[in-house]
Amino acid sequence: MNVKSAQVMTGRASSTVLSSLPLQMVLYLSGTYCALYFLATLLLIVYKSQVFTYPHSYLVLDLTLLFLMGILETMQLYFGTKGNLMEAEVPLAASLVLTVGGALLSVYFLLWQTLVLRADSALSATLLALHSLEAVLQVVAIAAFVS
After folding, report:
1. Which alpha helices (H) appear in 54-88, and where do they start and end?
2. Could you report the per-residue pLDDT of 91-138, keeping only the tens digit for each?
3. Does residue 15 fall inside a structural domain?
4. Is 115 within a domain?
5. Does some domain include residue 38?
6. Into how many domains does the chain fold?
7. Residue 135 contacts by C-beta under 8 Å, 6 or more apart in sequence?
8. Domain residues for 45?
9. What is the spatial distance between Cα 96 and Cα 137, in angstroms, rounded to a whole number?
């Protein structure tokens, strides 16, 4: 009996694993950093509202966008992990679209929020760099899954 027929009899066929370990590592790091980012930005918004003159309508806008960002990041990490581990293009493409949305919100908190402190800039720039790395690795993984 040759190896191929033994694999068929046992139900195990040899296959190539296409999941991206670097992408999975960046997704894990991004999940941890996003939780830190959310808490730090929330605390900074509370700090700015107490120390500086922060118009109520802009405070509501910044908080709404922060919570929207948290929801998008959670969905993006879920679809990214699912798509990578299942080697499926559709969830990974959905994660890529959500990554772009998260990157746009990162740019908002980096440049356009009502009051931008140096801590905001450092946190948002790091998150934007993570989003960029994720996007590149997601495109590479999708290309590997398709081919």
Report:
1. 56-86
2. 999 999 999 999 999 999 999 998 999 999 999 999 999 999 999 999
3. no
4. yes
5. yes
6. 1
7. 96, 99, 100, 103
8. 23-146
9. 10
